[in-house]
Write a structure and sequence with these properties.
Number of domains: 2
CATH topology of the largest domain: TIM Barrel
Oligomer: single chain
Keywords: Transferase
Organism: Candidatus Chloroploca mongolica
Order of helices and strands: EHEEHEEEEHEHEHEHEHEHEHHEH
CATH class of the largest domain: Alpha Beta
Protein name: 3-deoxy-7-phosphoheptulonate synthase
EC number: 2.5.1.54
Number of strands: 14
Bound molecules: phosphoenolpyruvate, manganese (II) ion
InterPro entries: Aldolase_TIM, Class-I_DAHP_synthase, DAHP1/KDSA, DAHP_snth_FXD, DAHP_syn_2
Strand content: 15-25%
Helix content: 25-40%
Length: about 350
Amino acid sequence: MLVVMEAHADATKIEAVCAEIRAMGYVPHPMPGPTRTAIGITGNRGPVEQATRLQRMPGVAQLIRVTSPYKLVSREFHEGDTLVQVGPVVFGGPAVTVIAGPCTVETREQTLTIAHAVREAGATMLRGGAFKPRTSPYAFHGLGEEGLRILAEAREATGMPVVTEVMDVETLPMVCEYADMLQIGARNMQNYPLLRAVGRSGRPVLLKRGFAATVKDLLLAAEYVLHEGNADVVLCERGIRTFDDTLRFTLDLGAVPMIKQLSHLPVIVDPSHASGRWDQVLPMARAAIAAGADGLIVEVHHNPAFALCDGQQSLVPDRFVAMMEQVARIADAMERPMAS
Ligand code: PEP
Ligand code: MN
């Protein structure tokens, strides 16, 4: 349920409606807009009972029933685009933002080399895993805190904020000490205690779509984070599992404009994990921007043959430069500048 206030309703009237909603046992979410304030109601399991009580309060223009199962992430609750700010980087505005870096932090020299290369090519944010979710328990699982320290050093050296994956509630405080943005990986998209914890952390979140998750599942996962009071969520389409195994996953680009219609949150695309092949990353990156994505997250490695993880899908720096040039041309056609 959404309570739309009259344009001239002052703070006292808005607070009175919020107090009434609380008295009914629900949670009010006042959302000031350019012309009027709307107050979202969550916590109800069915239609809000006694809603007529609100209808008759001073300053209330109308009540609107919200039909989607997610509320706080929906366009119904919040009409304008949400901007997510990570240091100097903004997601969801006019500019197309590119995050790039290695799959995994392997060594200090490796991460710094790649960080400088992607910054020079125009990336504005650095990625890199210190805690890696791997399908096999025998694979390399990342350097842990040492990896986080290296990422922090790369941030100092390049000025780029850092996004890195947090895998569990236990290590969240440690990751928060170093990271500017917390990545929730595809395998953890439905780890609800973790979603709540990153929601409470107040840090910007990059939420990747699970590879067996519907768009509705993804939006409901984001709803957990927003429900804890953290609206700084960027969604990431990174491919889903379908009957076709030609590529690592199937990039669901149709999800991009659909999510942007359903939700006010920024959406970026990961063409690296979606395709699993470096030679498919450029066309998928171009297509993602043409489909309306707000940005990209791309894996880059200066020596992919020796990468400890995902070398086969990593671009060498020269190809990343080519990707940035091509993406800039698509962005230009979409009348969007590249973030710089
Ligand atoms: C990653 O970005 O390093 C990663 C593991 O991605 P995903 O969770 O999408 O598989
Ligand atoms: Mn990877």
